[in-house]
Amino acid sequence: MATHHPHPEDHLTSSVILQDIVIGLSDGLTVPFALAAGLSGAVESSALVITAGLAEVVAGSIAMGLGGYLAGQTEVEHYASERAREFREVREVPDRERAEVDELLAEIGLSPETRAAAVRELTANPEQWVHFMMKYELGLEEPDPKQAPKSAATISLAYAVGGLIPLSAYFVTDSPTQGLTWSAVITLVCLLLFGYFKSHLTGQPPVLGALKMAGIGALAAGAAFFVARQIS
Amino acid sequence: MATHHPHPEDHLTSSVILQDIVIGLSDGLTVPFALAAGLSGAVESSALVITAGLAEVVAGSIAMGLGGYLAGQTEVEHYASERAREFREVREVPDRERAEVDELLAEIGLSPETRAAAVRELTANPEQWVHFMMKYELGLEEPDPKQAPKSAATISLAYAVGGLIPLSAYFVTDSPTQGLTWSAVITLVCLLLFGYFKSHLTGQPPVLGALKMAGIGALAAGAAFFVARQIS
């Protein structure tokens, strides 16, 4: 790592995008792969596997993208409403809010004298006081309102890209069984690479991360295959 | 609300479980519903829609549950490694870490004199110092290691329950078209109720939340139906 403590906002932005790609790609690689694998054990036609797979990719991509968008929007609204409440409390019950500041400062280990000075200085400006309460009492950072649509688009696209990889095998093979073989090879390789890369980024052991990711995919596909074969 | 500021840990625990149920249920109601709707426009047999739907529910439930479990595990490991790093830094480069504390205290509006006393008191104890850095520099709360398996089970189960609701309609009807009609009615009612309840819990406008949730489901199902019909 070049810089030891990256600027918090830079750090946040890059990790939010990567996090969104990771969310979309890991589900996109896994669920359509497993669904297609499941159907391969139950139907005779590759076209049917492709139809179901694409329907799943479209449905999942929309559900995840819109879900991400609305979750981001809710976070922005939640921050704004909590902030408005803190401003109201600072104005209406300043003594109780001052006692809360004092309590938080005691928790981080300040002496009564230092706390008295700190509470006086910190509560001199309502803007600063509310900022302190938001961050130190509620643990909330101000969300970026432009983040929600960006996240939605990233998750949605990553899911679709991830989902087309396992389905691609069924386009170029003659039977669902052949399709499944190639789909499993391609997808497990992608899950291994993706798990390796993701763990590397987050500072986890990369080989273990690769195996975990591929393991989820294999387990989901195996279970779907078993269930579909049982009922068909 | 009975208590104004609930104990932070109580608040956290209950909201984590509810959050997990919401995650599982909202995806479970939406994606299998949309997949089944998509296939209903492309195939003649309800059995096929059920096979694909159940394969999807199994795959999604495993992928989401295991995904949630591993994400929780990673969070625990990440916290432990960041904490070890802060302890190392406090020991090896105490002056730089003291300057970082001073910077955080300047940001909340304390004067140079108060900061000098506060930095001295706060850094007297390494345990307390590291706790401050973890929480206020890095914004990390200590995750509960028992949370990961609990979250996995909750998300997985909620997804499966959610997914069986739209599929149930195809069990009791004669054709995919009839199944789709009843599935859409049942699922949209559930999405409306679920969106209302969820928004109510998080303090958002409940009617709007109900409409958003049902809107995502309808859009995903409509798109899946359109795509499946085009290619079949």
UniProtKB/TrEMBL annotation, chains A, B:
The subcellular localization recorded is: Endomembrane system
Which keywords annotate this record?
A: Membrane, Transmembrane, Transmembrane helix
Primary location class: membrane
Keyword Transmembrane in record:
yes
Membrane topology per the entry is:
Multi-pass membrane protein
- Entry keyword Metal-binding: no
One matching Pfam family, short form? VIT1
Positions of transmembrane segments: 152-172, 179-197, 209-228
Name of the molecule in the record: VIT1/CCC1 transporter family protein
